[in-house]
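PROTOCOL LOG
Step 1. Enter all chains and additional molecules of the complex.
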Amino acid sequence: AQSVTQLDSQVPVFEEAPVELRCNYSSSVSVYLFWYVQYPNQGLQLLLKYLSGSTLVKGINGFEAEFNKSQTSFHLRKPSVHISDTAEYFCAVSDPFSGGYNKLIFGAGTRLAVHP
Amino acid sequence: EAGVTQSPTHLIKTRGQQATLRCSPISGHTSVYWYQQALGLGLQFLLWYDEGEERNRGNFPPRFSGRQFPNYSSELNVNALELEDSALYLCASSLYLAGQETQYFGPGTRLLVL
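Step 2. Run joint prediction.
Step 3. Record the structure below.
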């Protein structure tokens, strides 16, 4: 069964510094990968997704992620963070060939705290 | 275009009662997913409905059930509530097209069981 590991539960960073949130998934022939963000007391907002094609995916709010099949990773990056980026970030995977159902498997989440 | 909507935003119940949560998908989406986000347990898949049928369920007891209506909106019912059912319940909708699918989430219903 698919699993997702977010290697850092919390990432503190200063404003305008770069940040990388790490995500690894268990191996499969082919997967779809997603990053969602959850602001306090809100639902999940899609940041970006990898379905196929270019391994570098650009999303909203200046975030990007790189799909690395050999390392089974999908790390999220932003070159310069803002205070407003403070939130919980979830990496998720779905296996489009998993017998006809497409539930998302989520990582435990990484809390990004941006300090002034 | 309106996103996924959920109601109510908050719900307080006592042990043993029943809770009903509602979800309206994005217009044109035929699939609805339910997830539970409980403290310390992360986001867990509950149920998937597509075209009015339950397609799959996660590792939850039968007292978690639901349905999808002809307009593709969905209802999640939790019977015989237990304290550990306290969580944020998230609904997502999607449209499976050309072999690809992306789930879009609503704001959630926060259920508190006392």
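Step 4. Note key features.
The longest strand of chain A covers residues 87-94.
Chain A is about 0% helix and 50% strand.
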